[in-house]
Write a structure and sequence with these properties.
binds zinc ion; 3 helices; 182 residues; single chain; alpha+beta
C-alpha cells in the first residue's frame, strides 16, 4: 500500500477502492480558526498533531484505523502554570462503501478531546500553590508557617469528641458526689 502525506482529513472513497486500501500520514492545521480543535480551547492549546490512518476495503464498508499523537499546552490543575506535554490516542471508524468521501475531522477531534486528562498535572509530584499566600511551591518555599494540627478539620472533630467525653465524666462525678451526699 502507498503512503500518502497530506494536510487534509478528507479522502476520496473511489481513490481508496482503486488502490485496494490506503495508508496516509496527515498533518492537519492546528491553528485555532481551523475549527478542528474548537472544544480544546477551554482546556489548552494544541501545538502539534499527526494522524496516521489505514483504510481497509471490505465487502460493503471501508474501515479507517487511526493513530493520533501530538503535543499540547495545558494548565496544571494544582499549580495553575501552563506546561507542554505529549498525548496519543486511536480510533476505529467504519464508513459505508457507497459514500463519496470520508472526512476524519470529527473522529480526530473526538479522539483528541478524549485524551485530555480530567486533572492535568505539570508533574505527578507537583507541590501546588500555598493555600495562604498563593505562591507556586514548585519554585521554592514561601515564608508561611507550615499548616499546624489545629488547621486540620479532622483534629477539630477529635477534640470535640474528647470534650464530649470529659463532659460526660464530669456529669458522672457530680452525680456520684450527689449520691454520696444524700
Ligand atoms: Zn503543577
Ligand atoms: Zn505561603
Amino acid at each position: 500500500m502507498d503512503t500518502l502525506h497530506q494536510k487534509s482529513l478528507t479522502f476520496s472513497c473511489a481513490d481508496i477502492r482503486e488502490r485496494g486500501g490506503l495508508v496516509s500520514q496527515v498533518k492537519p492545521d492546528t491553528c485555532q480558526d481551523s475549527g478542528l480543535f474548537e472544544g480544546l480551547l477551554r482546556v489548552g492549546r494544541l501545538l502539534d498533531v499527526q494522524v496516521r490512518v489505514k483504510f481497509s476495503v471490505g465487502s460493503s464498508a471501508i474501515l479507517a484505523e487511526g493513530e493520533i499523537d501530538g503535543k499540547w499546552e495545558l494548565e496544571c490543575s494544582r499549580c495553575l502554570a501552563n506546561f507542554n506535554s505529549t498525548f496519543a490516542g486511536s480510533f476505529d471508524e467504519t464508513y459505508p462503501e457507497t459514500v463519496e468521501s470520508i472526512d476524519l475531522t470529527d473522529a480526530v477531534r473526538q479522539t483528541v478531546l478524549l485524551s485530555v486528562p480530567v486533572k492535568p498535572l505539570c508533574s505527578t509530584d507537583c507541590k501546588g500553590l500555598c493555600p495562604k499566600c498563593g505562591m507556586n511551591l514548585n519554585r521554592g518555599r514561601c515564608n508561611c508557617p507550615p499548616p499546624s494540627a489545629k488547621d486540620c478539620p479532622f483534629s477539630i472533630s477529635l477534640r470535640m469528641r474528647d470534650c464530649n467525653r470529659d463532659f460526660k465524666v464530669v456529669n458522672l462525678l457530680s452525680d456520684a458526689a450527689r449520691i454520696i451526699k444524700e
